[in-house]
Sequence to fold (251 residues):
Amino acid sequence: MELRGRGAASPQNPIKSPLTHKSCAWWRYEIQEWRRSGKSKRWVTIEEGTSEMPFVLDDGTGQCLVDPRGAEVVAPTTDIWCGDSRYPGVRLPEATGVLGWLEAQLVTPPYRYIERRLESGRYLCAIGAFRTGGGVRSFDADAAAGALLHDWKNDQPGLLARFDTNHDGVIGAAEWESARAAAAAQVSAQHLAAPIAPSSSVLAAPGDGRPFLLTATDRDALARRFRLQAAASLGLFLAATTAVALLLKAV
Fold:
């Protein structure tokens, strides 16, 4: 089923992106490290994550809850910037998008951050399986993650065993950020697995292999995108077939 409307986090379930801390409906991030191996230099992804929190799609006549797990998301907003530590903290990117990418190529600092978002209030096209019988559950993600972190702090041996990556007996700033991210992911997963009240409708991944798409691109542009992908795949197939035929002929 196809739905169109404006996407946003529900008031009960605020969503903030993990690197820029901006309010949004959905996010995906990567943290990359600049590594050298002999003469080879390249960016290596050392951490990544994708939002699994449900958000609301409002078409003007009603609201539908969207469960983004398993979706192919075409996010129009991308921030790319660099820094000297594994986590950027609360500092917002100074150069984003193409400028951030150019900075990363010229300066080559130790870390690069990539964050993609579906901004709140953005007009979206969603294609997936529609079902009724689910509503938005009231959930304070920050409070739940904080409570879980408090429990982990009370178990210092377990906390150190899990997050003390440099084995110095102390949870440093970067290690604490890893613990915070793990707590947020755990409480979000638990929240999504809990039963929801039968008060509204849900768009989610089909169970039969059909596509599940979330995009801020209109339907015509999306159709053009898939036509181009199909044409590119066909071109590669024909090129490979021709190459095999020429190789067999030469033999």
